[in-house]
Amino acid sequence: MNKIKLNKYLEIAIVVTFVVVLIYIGSITFRITTGVSKTIESPSYVIRLQVLNGCGQPGLAGVYADKLAAFKDDEMEIKVVDTDNFELKKVAESFIISRLDDKKAARLLAQKIGLDPSKVTYKPLENNYRHVSATLVLGEDYKNILATQK
Prior knowledge:
Elements: H1 2-34, E1 45-53, H2 60-69, E2 76-85, E3 95-98, H3 104-113, E4 121-122, E5 134-138
Parallel strand pairs: 1-2, 1-5, 3-4
Antiparallel strand pairs: 3-5
């Protein structure tokens, strides 16, 4: 008689477990099919930027890299991936070199930071292992960059 009661309790436990699993699956299905989905707005362009100091002012590339790394709006986000010195030390005007054949992102960057978008040039990087999409060369007019930003 003890075996019969034990088997009965075991059957009841199996049925209860099965019902709990069905309820759990049903609740997950309900949440998936009727839940609120969140749309994450991402900018149209994510620019991987290299900042080069072309005017010889010590530490300038790092200072502007920090300022530009915080820039993000609906159209564009900047990710600074490299800072260094430019091969020339007396660059008069700052400029942007697009490292991508399509210069739209680099022109948008120029417009956002206060440079003339029509002066963006194109020159691909050899061994572009950092996937740089644009290079900003800071010239002696560097104070004009981001002058209109807060």
